[in-house]
Amino acid sequence: MYKLKVITSTVRPGRKGPAIAKWITGAANNHGFEAEMIDLGELNLPLMNEPVHPALKQYEHEHTKQWSAKIEEADAFIFVTAEYNHSYPAPLKNAVEYLVHEWAYKPSGMVGYSIGPFAGVRAIMNLKADMLALKNIALAEMVNIPQLNQFMDEEGNFTADERLNNNAKIMLDQLVRWTKGMKAIKEDK
Ligand SMILES: Cc1cc2nc3c(=O)[nH]c(=O)nc-3n(C[C@H](O)[C@H](O)[C@H](O)COP(=O)(O)O)c2cc1C
């Protein structure tokens, strides 16, 4: 079974990211992945504070060693990203920057959301470009959630509609395929 990490992007109190991540984590677990959700708000990484370039993997801090181990064991990722000022939020950029090799030769599905009509598409396009620099390949298939509040209830729960569930299925089908392929590339040294 492939190991999948579902990673959120926001840390502010009242953030909606974890509710959406919970939904896609459940969908992934029902799709043959061993999926684990990582809420960056709970992970609480400081701003990147390793003295040595992460490509050398000479990690000084315990939080980095734990983050490295968590990402290393993953075969694939799903990033659940909000759109902050037409891009993806700084906490996610920070979490990504801590590591290099741990992201490489692995595929990523992306779920974008926003309270406006653009559904996090601009955040995803920026995130995709940055992940490519780390040899992490984002799928063409993605899930875009516009006008987020229509899917949220008063308790902060997120409920996907038929279109979103269908888009998630399409993306997860492709993620299985790409995970298999990228694993072969990763192991072929
Ligand atoms: C700092 C900040 C910047 C934002 N920028 C955008 C934006 O560029 N486009 C957009 O549609 N919504 C924007 N929003 C609204 C977010 O889509 C909405 O608040 C969403 O719930 C943020 O995700 P979160 O709840 O996980 O923090 C912004 C919100 C914040 C707090």
UniProtKB/TrEMBL annotation:
**Stored InterPro entries:** Flavoprotein-like_sf, FMN_Rdtase-like_dom, NAD(P)H-dep_reductase
Its EC number(s): 1.-.-.-
Q: Which GO molecular function annotations are given, in alphabetical order?
A: oxidoreductase activity
Give the protein name, as stated in the record.
NADPH-dependent FMN reductase
Keywords per UniProt? Oxidoreductase
Q: Which residues form the NADPH-dependent FMN reductase-like domain?
A: 3-146
Q: Which residues form a coiled coil?
A: none
The keyword Aminoacyl-tRNA synthetase appears for this protein: no
EC main group: oxidoreductase
